[in-house]
């Protein structure tokens, strides 16, 4: 089966997540069509039979080119089994109301685009302090302090649960085959 793995990534963690998904998809014997939705290229020569999209939350929203892509491709996305991985920091917050907010980020995307993925995973992203410029580092530290994440900007921190991601992909593939 051809499976489209579409992603957008500002700082690289969602790309890493999409790459892992592609690895799992290929290991399960399918063909992963890896696609950065901001590349403006056509995403496949052959029509994908299932789709997994991944996008990060930055300043409370998904990147605009990703939302535009989903809106533009809505009819196709509705026509195949689909899954969505929402990447954020709030989902690993110490505070329940922030985790709850993160669980609702995908609802906003669905309301804005009309696409309802068959499965949704809310995955924790990363803080790559050493790669940010001054302003981003300042924003990220504020965000981290607010939700109990580490604020030592001399290091990077990865919160993604790779085992959970692998299970999510396996469940999705099992559902597609069923
Ligand atoms: C400038 C900045 C703003 C962010 N804003 C939010 C936010 O509003 N809510 C949230 O849950 N995570 C927020 N994050 C955390 C990102 O979702 C997390 O770092 C994720 O791994 C980024 O994915 P990417 O590396 O693919 O861009 C922010 C991160 C940065 C650097």
From TrEMBL:
PROSITE patterns xref list: FLAVODOXIN_LIKE (PS50902)
Biological process according to GO: heme biosynthetic process
Annotated Flavodoxin-like domain residues: 3-167
Pfam families: Flavodoxin_5
Keyword list, A-Z: Flavoprotein, FMN
Domain of life: Bacteria
Keyword Flavoprotein on entry: yes
Molecular function in Gene Ontology: FMN binding; menaquinone-dependent protoporphyrinogen oxidase activity
PANTHER family to which the protein is assigned, alphabetical: PROTOPORPHYRINOGEN IX DEHYDROGENASE [MENAQUINONE], PROTOPORPHYRINOGEN IX DEHYDROGENASE [QUINONE]
Full protein name: Protoporphyrinogen oxidase
């Amino acid at each position: 089966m051809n499976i489209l793995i579409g992603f957008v990534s500002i700082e690289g963690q969602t790309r890493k997540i999409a790459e892992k998904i592609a690895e799992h998809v290929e290991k399960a014997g399918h063909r992963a069509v890896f696609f950065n939705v901001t590349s403006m290229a056509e995403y496949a020569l052959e029509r994908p039979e299932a789709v997994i999209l991944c996008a990060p939350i930055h300043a409370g929203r998904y990147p605009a080119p990703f939302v535009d892509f989903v809106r533009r491709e809505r009819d196709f996305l509705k026509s195949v089994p689909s899954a969505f991985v929402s990447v954020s920091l709030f989902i690993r917050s110490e505070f329940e109301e922030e985790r709850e907010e993160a669980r609702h980020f995908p609802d906003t995307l669905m309301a804005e685009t009309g696409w309802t993925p068959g499965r949704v995973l809310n995955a924790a992203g990363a803080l790559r302090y050493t790669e940010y410029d001054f302003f981003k580092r300042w924003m990220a530290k504020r965000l981290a302090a607010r939700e109990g994440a580490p604020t030592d900007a001399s290091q990077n921190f990865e919160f993604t649960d790779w085992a959970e991601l692998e299970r999510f992909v396996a469940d999705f593939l099992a559902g597609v085959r069923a």
